[in-house]
């Protein structure tokens, strides 16, 4: 069960996904009572190594580690030796030499966590790599879905937005297809990656088709920072033809939940009425994110038990 | 697994009455006296004792349940996520004379955890331990101040406490595992 690292859901079994979700249930029970003091990671160090900006992922990992008793260290590429030209592998080996137990890495290049994992003894967690994967975001999405619907079998998940640049979309797709859910995707053709249907996604031809009967409506942020011009005319045009308003939500199942990994561009992917509406689980997702990351760190460090005596 | 009954409802009732008097006597009155019962059966014992003190002394001491889930000593060695409830007693323990209540005292590990839980809430003047049964088998330097009944047991024996609030009747029996 669950190896040294968590690099992506493409290589994670449905059993391991369910193990993480099941473990997170106990964590959330404690969190909702404001009980934030478990001893399992005492004496361990969790480092967040972020080559890209982040608020919630980084904070979520850091709090999850602290709630389990670990020490935490933050490294931002902008204020580290990366600026002096140190390679990723050398940075990793430095962190290893300082006896880090877990490295959470976010990097603009897909595959960077995999490269790091091969070169360090520490457990590596992918906190988002380029346009590839963001497994812990998908895991917290799954947690949120299972909490509402109980199971994934036949669950209809509509993903709308910038699919091409979204690592969240890919991790969700890889995991959800393994768990038995149906994923439909809709975006401007320029933001739909070629061949994604061969990975199990149903590409919808219209907003209405994507939303029809959906149990989960997931919006993804339009990632302007990754676009180098010309993918669509303007944000307002995107909002008009691809955004989801309360009226569009009527095509979805009446008990559907609205999700978004954040940060949200209000009035672009979703209207404010959808974001703050009664179907919205966007804030609950953030709490679930801490519980899921606690569960993941808990399980990864369980595998590391006893190694300190051998080292 | 044949069970031998050691205490019936009347015997448990008499024992609790005696323990309630001893709790007051040991603390030289009801002034500052508070009861904390270790969930779940200890909480019931504490509530019964509190009611008896009120009946006989006219003052109902503050009484609350205490959850030790987060304070167990096997969380890391056993590596599991505990079921736990947040402790909020509804009164301050600072400077109070605490009587910690449980149904059975065995290894003493639960009591050690409960003491840690109490001190996370404040600094009481004293903590005394009240148990319905002391079955021996201590693994910690813990002893009870107020004991309902001493029942020396071996490790393959089981003490079964039944309380009206949970099982619908008061009785206490011993059975042998295997």
State the gist of this model.
Chain A has 311 residues and is an alpha/beta fold.
Structure commentary:
- The complex is a heterodimer of chains A (311) and B (178).
- Chain A has 311 residues and is α/β, with parallel strands linked by helices.
- In chain A, 40% of the residues lie in helices and 15% in strands.
- Chain A is built from twelve helices and nine strands.
- In chain A, strand 3 (102-107), helix 4 and strand 4 form a beta-alpha-beta unit.
- In chain A, helix 1 crosses helix 11 (282-303), helix 2 crosses helix 11 (282-303) and helix 3 packs across helix 4 (112-119).
- The longest helix of chain A has 22 residues, at 282-303.
- With 178 residues, chain B is α/β, with parallel strands linked by helices.
- Chain B has one domain: Rossmann fold.
- In chain B, 28% of the residues lie in helices and 28% in strands.
- Chain B contains four helices and eight strands.
- Chain B has a five-stranded parallel sheet. Chain B has a three-stranded antiparallel sheet with strand order 1-8-7.
- The longest helix of chain B is centred in the N-terminal third of the chain and has 18 residues, at 9-26.
- Chain B is globular.
- At the A-B interface, helix 1 of A face loops of B.
Report helical residue fraction of chain A. 25-40%
For the biggest sheet of chain B, the summary is: 5 strands, parallel
User: What value does the Rg of chain B take, in angstroms?
Assistant: 16 Å
Low-pLDDT segments, ≥5 res of chain A? none
User: What structural category characterises the helix and strand content of chain B?
Assistant: alpha/beta
CATH architecture of chain B, by name, is 3-Layer(aba) Sandwich
What is the rounded distance between the termini of chain A? 22 Å
User: Strand-residue fraction of chain A?
Assistant: 5-15%
Most residues in contact: chain pair: A-B, 16 and 10 residues
Regions with little confidence, pLDDT below 50 for 5+ residues of chain B: none
| SS-based class of chain A | alpha/beta
Evaluate the radius of gyration of chain A. Answer: 19 Å
Q: What is the residue-mean pLDDT of chain A, rounded to a whole number?
A: 94
Report the average pLDDT across residues of chain B: 96
């Amino acid at each position: 069960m669950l190896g040294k690292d968590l690099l992506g859901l493409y290589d994670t079994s449905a059993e391991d996904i369910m193990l993480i979700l099941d473990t997170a249930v106990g964590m959330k029970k404690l969190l909702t009572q404001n009980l934030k003091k478990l001893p399992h990671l005492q004496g361990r160090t969790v480092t967040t190594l972020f080559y890209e900006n982040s608020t919630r992922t980084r904070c979520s990992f850091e709090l999850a580690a602290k709630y389990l008793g670990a020490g935490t260290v933050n490294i931002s590429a902008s204020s580290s030796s990366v600026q002096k030209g140190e390679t990723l592998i050398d940075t990793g080996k430095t962190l290893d030499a300082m006896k880090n137990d877990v490295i959470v890495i976010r990097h603009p290049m897909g595959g960077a966590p995999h490269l790091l994992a091969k070169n360090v003894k520490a457990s590596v967690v992918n906190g988002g790599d380029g346009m590839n994967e963001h497994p812990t975001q998908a895991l917290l999405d799954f947690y949120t879905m299972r909490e509402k619907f109980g199971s994934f079998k036949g669950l209809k998940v509509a993903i709308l937005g910038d699919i091409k640049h979204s690592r969240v979309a890919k991790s969700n797709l890889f995991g959800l297809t393994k768990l038995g859910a149906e994923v439909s995707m809709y975006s401007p053709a320029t933001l739909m990656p070629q061949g994604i249907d061969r990975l199990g996604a149903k590409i919808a031809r219209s907003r209405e088709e994507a939303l029809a009967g959906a149990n989960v409506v997931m919006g993804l942020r339009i990632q302007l920072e990754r676009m180098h011009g010309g993918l669509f005319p303007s944000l307002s045009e995107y909002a008009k033809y691809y955004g989801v308003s309360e009226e569009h939500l009527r095509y979805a199942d009446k008990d559907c939940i609205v999700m978004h990994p954040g940060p949200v561009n209000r009035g672009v992917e979703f209207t404010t009425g959808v974001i703050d509406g009664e179907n919205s689980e966007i804030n609950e997702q953030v709490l679930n994110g801490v519980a899921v990351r606690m569960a993941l760190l808990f399980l990864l460090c369980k595998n590391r038990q006893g190694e300190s005596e051998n080292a | 697994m044949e069970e031998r009954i050691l205490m019936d409802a009347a015997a448990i009732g008499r024992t609790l009455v005696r323990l309630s008097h001893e709790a007051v006597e040991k603390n030289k009155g009801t002034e500052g006296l508070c009861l904390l019962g270790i969930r779940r059966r200890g909480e019931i014992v504490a509530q019964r004792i509190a009611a008896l003190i009120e009946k006989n002394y006219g003052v109902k001491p503050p009484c609350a349940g205490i959850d030790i889930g987060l304070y167990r000593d096997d969380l890391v060695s056993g590596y599991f996520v505990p079921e736990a409830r947040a402790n909020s007693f509804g009164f301050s323990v600072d400077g109070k004379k605490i009587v910690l209540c449980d149904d059975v005292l065995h290894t003493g590990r639960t009591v050690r955890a409960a003491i840690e839980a109490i001190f996370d809430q404040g600094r009481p003047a004293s903590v005394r331990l009240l148990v319905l049964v002391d079955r021996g088998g201590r693994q910690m330097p813990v002893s009870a101040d107020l004991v309902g009944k001493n029942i020396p047991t071996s490790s393959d024996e089981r003490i079964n406490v039944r309380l009206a609030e949970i099982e619908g009747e008061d009785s206490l029996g011993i059975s042998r595992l295997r």
